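Arachidonate 15-lipoxygenase type II, Cricetulus griseus. Tokens?
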Amino acid sequence: MTVKDLDLNIKYSAIKNARFFFKVQSALPKNFPVTDDMVAPVLGPGTSLQAELEKGSLFLVDHGILSGIQTNVINGKPQFSAAPMTLLYQCSGSGPLLPLAIQLKQTPGPDNPIFLPSDDKWDWLLAKTWVRNAEFSVHEAVTHLLHAHLLPEVFALATLRHLPHCHPLFKLLIPHIRYTLHINTLARELLIAPGQVVDRVLVLSSFPQSTGLGIGGFSELIKRNMEQLSYSVLCLPEDIRARDVADIPGYYYRDDGMQIWGAIKSFVSEIVSIYYPSDVSVREDQELQAWFDACVWMPNLPPTMPLPPPTSKGQVRPEGFIATLPPVNATCDVIIALWMLSKEPGDRRPLGHYPDEHFTEDAPRRSMAAFQIQLVQISRDIGERNRSLALPYIYLDPPLIENSVSI
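Tokens:
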């Protein structure tokens, strides 16, 4: 490819899908000192930054999450990453979003210029390319891996561990977690493991030969997003309101997404209302409560502790406790292993079941029959006791005990 083959007019319409895209409210961030003179060639006469702010026509894409991120070495050469801030302008309230200014690092200064459409075309093209690179990294690590793979995995595991097949929520959820664990396990083995695709390649993707952030940057980016993640971010209507982008014309991610969201909400609400007519029925469903706890309370079973045990009393603070909990990746790996090791095999044989009939004599057969009758009575006693327990203890119920160490 030659220089003349390059398209100097990189399109920015897709950037409206970014989770870091929002309307500027009262003023630009102090660390993004764009002036009227800088943007006058694009805004034209008779207006200013303040006037456009008041009209609601200025938007910001802030990739500050990438600031200082660890980068990779590819083919013996160190890779680099930017943490750009991009100011966008919507002309006439209904036109396309146009990039007004780009700053590639979060701290302003003489070595961090603000790039403008009026600059040399190659300066401007390179600045826009850095923004797209940042969006690529965030999309692959946060939007793709974390939000589309790892977070659904939490619900998949909770469903399989705590909801029996006859449970209405299991029936509702199981079609939507099909292959989730399988594809995530393959990703860990073939894409994001040390020395695999992400480490060898990309700046943060899951395609061969290209990664600039590597496993270290990949993991750090996920960790940073988890620290600022809230439930509302995962709910499209709340996310749209929080970013104040409900009234942008031509925002098809929002328009189509809200229609899909509405259809899903209606369907799920109807199904749930059949089985849960009130809040009381939700609270009284112990399996549902266990499912929810498994999703939100990781300290129930931490697989590792990053800090040493305390050597005195009265010194632990909330932040110290949180710092002692295991990282997300270690937790996910262990949960997957535990699920696989506790998965019921298709040919499970409960304690006391002897279909192979190794004994042919009457005496041992009578002993086996008596043993099975005793196990049945034990199971009945356990069932009767569990009826009075808030959280039934079923782990030693004979039908749930394997006849051998088979998994």
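Confidence is low (pLDDT under 50) at residues 1-17, 196-211, 298-305.
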